[in-house]
Amino acid sequence: MDVPFTRAGVAGLGLIGGSLALALRQAGLSVTGYDIDTATVRAANTADIAASTTPDALFDTDILFIALYPDATIDFVRTHAARIKQGGLVVDCCGIKTRVVEALTTVAAENGFTFIGGHPMAGSEFGGFGAARADLFAGASFLLTPPDPQMPQLAPLETLLRRIGCVPNVTDPAHHDRMIAFTSQLPHALACAYVLSSSCPGHAGFSAGSYRDVSRVAHINPTLWAELFLENRDAFCAEMDEMIDHLQTLRNAAAADNRKSLEDLLKKARKRKELDNLQQR
């Protein structure tokens, strides 16, 4: 598969940006990286990424990935818009899309480059360049929210993403944010609420796979996730309200010693999950 770009830049070399840089380098691109942390830059340079604590070299690349927090992504692109390569492509990696896309589509049009919203559906409970790996995106969906699904810049981007192992999926920002509230933000909130239980400190010896699976993503970046929850608060709160309703229904059936209601609720959930499993095959 031919790679449609030769030079790529990555702003932010944490888990996602670092993994992108490694994957792009492995795909044969010349990769320039930027991060404000000197230790991260040293580690990236050791991994054959031409990294720096200044962003200057990013602006002559064919494609520029921004792997920063949402507010920082908007600020970075606005600050450096006039320096970004004319005709170049900028793709963000933020976990929310509506606000970022609305802000940066206009900036791109005014400054002669193209912006496409992106969100790689891959990650880990661990962060930083030390956790980055080139195969992080293998088989992972990479959500794209282009301003026009027919725009010519989309196909080369999809080709590049497939080259690094991703499965490109095009959606719109509003639908993205609604679904991410359910698939990503709600599970993180649930994991945090779960480990805040007064029973959590005494779980050793009483826990196995269920505890591990539910609690895993409570190993969370508080600054990033607070920003993501707030930026998508309408959809996030709607999902939280529905989850609370379901928990309350289960709790009420147990409190009322209503075995039939409990079994009916659990059967309904099992059927939903079985159907989900079939659809994922």
Automatic annotation (TrEMBL):
Gene3D superfamilies: 6-phosphogluconate dehydrogenase C-terminal like domain, NAD(P)-binding Rossmann-like Domain. Keywords: Coiled coil, Oxidoreductase. Residues 6-281 form the Prephenate/arogenate dehydrogenase domain. Belongs to the prephenate/arogenate dehydrogenase family. PROSITE patterns: PDH_ADH. It comes from Ethanoligenens harbinense (strain DSM 18485 / JCM 12961 / CGMCC 1.5033 / YUAN-3). The keyword Repeat does not apply. Residues 252-279 form a coiled coil. GO terms for biological process: tyrosine biosynthetic process. The keyword Metal-binding does not apply. This is Prephenate dehydrogenase. Pathway: Amino-acid biosynthesis. One of its GO terms (molecular function) is NAD+ binding.
